[in-house]
């Protein structure tokens, strides 16, 4: 059964089931999406994750109201790859991160992605990260080792619940974990804080350094949305270790059972290989198509529709044909839009005419003239319905407005059937029904003389008989 207040269902990766979505507070629905590390252009696989989150954001706004959904999508502007890029290009870090953050936002805006409600930058939340790491250390979930701070996975029983990890999966701990193995208590421990690199570092009670990737999201989500958030999204590749580690950090630091109530993961966008197989688009495989480049050739809406051509939990094989097909689909949709807009204009003109007349010193007669003008449209629509044809939203609106307009004037307040029976009493109505039936039967028997008698009888009683396809009816004269 659909819950009218919370009509959305979502597949929750955490429980591996489709569940009714119930926010903690419908006046402040919260959603977090891991944003880009800004050292280069976004590829179309990254765009898929952003477009899926944007559709979810739009649906939530539609259900709970535009002002009741808080969507945070961060910018990761501290990362080894950014430091590396600064070294290679000789450019200041801020110049690189600002440039690519701007391009990322512009590319997504071209795909009609709404700006998130908040876009926290990691470098603006270092203090929050330091506080969270300190709390984890105090609570015994983290330990310092050789200038680093690690999260101790053995202290968190629920570790692995999201990814359902195996010991194999646990072996790789974190993204850049290789050199850190010797410093860790458990192979799966992951880094929260690393020593300063090439002059990039911040002072902290546990030594000058820079944050690990996972703690950034936990701290930014807490700062912008709260300790427990409603929805966390991202690509399936982030489930482990990134999201698993976010959960461990946030639950342990905030002393909560959950970090996000619903986890929504999009599947991969794949690229065809020369051998006919397809594989995940990723920078490391060198098979990327940049959103920025595609936008030079294709309209952003064409790209957006192409990205939506597979359900978000299915893989999407990217191809030029997908773009061509999307372009054709949009061309016919725009043709329909043009027609729909004409119809809408017609409706608006009629309504506008009605309001203008009535608001002009209560010009009731002019207003009625406008309704009567619109009656032609209403007649067409009711005819269509009578013939079993579908009607459009615009046409349905004409009918609704027609009725509303009369309500505003305090007219047409009766049921049409009562109106035509003109207040006849029960006995009278039974008598008139009988006369009408006599005429109907006479006509069916082609007894024209008897049919005339019935009509004359009706006239004498002050009613009019009407012969229709469904038989003979009467109304007050
Ligand atoms: P990254 O910059 O690698 O952290 O990725 C940004 C977002 O894009 C994350 O949510 C990833 O999971 C997602 N993502 C990366 N590659 C792909 C892909 N090929 N298909 C779908 N989503 C992807
Ligand atoms: Zn994240």
Structure notes:
- The chain is of the alpha/beta class and 477 residues long.
- The protein folds into 3 domains: 3-318, HUPs (Rossmann fold, 3-Layer(aba) Sandwich), CATH 3.40.50.620; 337-413, no CATH class; 418-476.
- Helix content is 48%, strand content 15%.
- It has helices at residues 44-64, 80-89, 93-110, 126-138, 167-170, 213-224, 239-254, 291-297, 300-307, 320-359, 364-386, 393-409, 416-421, 426-444, 448-460; strands at residues 9-12, 17-20, 29-33, 69-73, 142-145, 148-151, 190-195, 209-211, 229-235, 260-266, 269-272, 278-280, 316-318, 463-468, 471-476.
- The strands form 5 sheets. Strands 4-3-9-10 form a 4-stranded parallel beta sheet, with helices on both faces. The chain has a 4-stranded antiparallel beta sheet with strand order 5-6-7-8.
- A hairpin with a 2-residue loop joins strand 5 and strand 6 (148-151).
- The chain is elongated.
- The two termini are 50 Å apart.
- Zinc ion is lined by residues 34, 217, 242, 246.
Describe, in short, the structure shown.
The protein is 48% helix and 15% strand.
Overall 3D geometry?
elongated
The multimeric state of the shown protein is: single chain
Number of domains: 3
Beta-strand content estimate: 5-15%
Percentage of residues in helical conformation:
40-55%
Could you name the CATH homologous superfamily of the largest domain?
Answer: HUPs
Overall radius of gyration: 34 Å
């Amino acid at each position: 059964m659909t819950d009218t207040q919370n009509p959305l269902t979502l597949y929750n990766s955490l429980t591996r089931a489709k569940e009714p979505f119930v926010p903690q507070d419908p006046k402040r629905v919260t959603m977090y999406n891991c944003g880009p590390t800004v050292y280069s252009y976004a590829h179309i696989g990254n765009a898929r994750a952003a477009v899926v989150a944007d559709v979810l954001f739009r649906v939530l706004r539609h259900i709970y109201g535009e002002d009741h959904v808080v969507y945070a999508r961060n910018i990761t502007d501290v990362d080894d790859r950014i430091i590396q890029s600064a070294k290679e290009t000789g450019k200041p870090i801020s110049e690189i991160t600002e440039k690519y953050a701007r391009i990322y936002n512009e590319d997504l805006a071209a795909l009609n992605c709404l700006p998130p409600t908040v876009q926290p930058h990691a470098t603006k939340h270092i203090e929050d990260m330091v506080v969270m790491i300190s709390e984890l250390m105090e609570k015994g979930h983290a330990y310092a080792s050789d200038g680093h701070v690690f999260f101790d996975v053995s202290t968190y029983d629920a570790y692995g619940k999201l990814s359902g990890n195996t010991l194999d999966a646990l072996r790789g701990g974190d993204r850049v974990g290789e050199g850190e193995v010797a410093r860790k208590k458990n192979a799966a421990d992951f880094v929260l804080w690393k020593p300063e690199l090439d002059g990039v570092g911040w002072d902290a009670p546990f030594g000058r350094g820079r944050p690990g990737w996972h703690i950034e999201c936990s701290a930014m989500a807490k700062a912008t949305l709260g300790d427990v958030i409603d929805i966390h999204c991202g690509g399936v590749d982030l489930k482990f270790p990134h999201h698993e580690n976010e959960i461990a950090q946030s639950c342990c630091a905030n002393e909560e059972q959950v970090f996000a109530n619903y986890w929504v993961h999009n599947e991969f966008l794949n690229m065809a290989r020369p051998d006919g197989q397809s594989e995940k688009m990723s920078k490391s495989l060198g098979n990327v198509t940049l959103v920025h480049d595609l936008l030079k050739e294709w309209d952003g809406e064409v790209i957006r529709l192409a990205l939506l051509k597979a359900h978000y939990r299915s893989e999407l094989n990217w191809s030029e044909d997908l773009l061509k097909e999307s372009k054709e689909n949009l061309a016919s949709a725009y043709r329909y839009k043009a027609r729909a807009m004409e119809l809408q204009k017609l409706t608006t003109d009629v309504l506008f005419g009605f309001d203008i007349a009535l608001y002009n010193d209560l010009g009731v007669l002019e207003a009625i003239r406008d309704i009567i003008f619109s009656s032609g449209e209403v007649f067409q629509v009711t005819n269509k319905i009578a013939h079993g044809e579908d009607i459009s939203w615009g046409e349905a609106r004409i009918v609704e407005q027609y009725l509303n307009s009369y309500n505003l004037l305090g007219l047409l307040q009766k049921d049409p059937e009562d109106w035509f029976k003109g207040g006849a009493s029960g006995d009278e109505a039974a008598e008139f029904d009988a006369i009408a039936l006599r005429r109907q039967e006479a006509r069916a028997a082609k007894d024209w003389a008897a049919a005339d008698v019935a009509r004359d009888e009706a006239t004498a009683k002050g009613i009019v008989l009407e012969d229709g396809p469904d038989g003979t009816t009467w109304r007050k004269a």
